[in-house]
Amino acid sequence: MLDQAVNALRRELGENLYCCCVYGSAVRGNSIEGVSDINLLLLLNQSTPAAHQGVARAIGSRPQIDPFVLARGGFERSARAFATKFASIKRNYRVLFGTDPLAGLNVDDDLEKFLCEQALRNLRLRLVYSFVTRQHNQAYDKFLVRNATGIFVQISEALRLNGIALPATFETRIPILEHEYKISGQVLRDLLALKKSPRKFSDDEAVAWHGHLFPVVDTVLAWIESKWPAIPLK
C-alpha cells in the first residue's frame, strides 16, 4: 500500500513532492490491521490548492492513509507550532521518498513542555465535552476510539520530557505509567482493547468509562503542574 501511495503521489505531484515519510504505529510495529491509520508526512515545495487536489487524487480514496501535509516554506515554524507531534514523529519514522526533513530538527525543551501540557488540556476539554453532549451526539465511544492513540502519546510524552525512558509499544508502557502517575492502568488496557474492537456503548457504559478515564487524564495534568513551572504570560 505504501509503495502504491508513494507512486501515486509522485505521479500526481511530480517535482512538487519534496519528501514523503511514514511515521507512527506502522514504524513502531504495533499497528492493528484494519484499524490503525497509516500516517504519512508529506512535504511539498509549494502547498497550493492544485497540489492539495493532487494529494486527494493520489490517496484520498484510501481511508487507511492519514496525511499530514505541509509546505517547505515555513516548515521550521510549523515544527515549532507542532513541537510535541514532531518530537513523536522523530522517534518513529522512515523516509519513503525524497530528503529527510527531520534530520536536523531540534525543538526547545520548554516549548515542547508547554505544547505537551496544552495538548493534554485540550484533550481533557474535548473528553468532557464529548461526555456531557453524549445524549444527542451519541459519539462518546467513537471519541475514545479516535483518540486512543493520542491519549497514550500525550501522557507518555510528559514522562519523556521529564527524562523517563519508555518502551515502543503502548501496552508495555502501562506499568511505567501506573508507577509514575500512581494510577490504575486497567482503563488504559481497556482502551487498547476498545481500539482493536470498537463497539457501541450503552449510556451506563459511557458513564463507567468516563468515571475511570477522566481521572487518569486529570491526574497526569496535576503531575505536570507539580513538576513543571508555569510559563508566565507576557
Strand content: 5-15%
Distance between the termini: 48 Å
Please name the CATH architecture of the largest domain. Answer: Up-down Bundle
| Radius of gyration over all CA atoms, rounded | 19 Å
Mean pLDDT: 92
Question: How would a textbook summarize the main sheet?
Answer: 4 strands, mixed
* Tally of distinct domains: 2
- C-alpha geometry: globular
What level of helicity do the residues show? 55-70%
How many separate helices?
A: 11
Major β-sheet strand ordering:
3-2-1-4
The CATH top-level class label of the largest domain:
Mainly Alpha
What is the H-and-E element order? HEHEHEHHEHHHHHH
- The beta-strand count equals 4
Structural classification: alpha+beta
Which consecutive residue ranges, at least 5 long each, have pLDDT under 50?
A: none
| CATH-assigned fold name of the largest domain | Four Helix Bundle (Hemerythrin (Met), subunit A)
Write a brief caption for the model.
This protein is α+β, with helices and mostly antiparallel strands and 234 residues long.
Index terms:
2 domains, four-stranded mixed β-sheet, Beta Polymerase, domain 2, 12% strand, alpha+beta, Four Helix Bundle (Hemerythrin (Met), subunit A), 11 helices, 234 residues
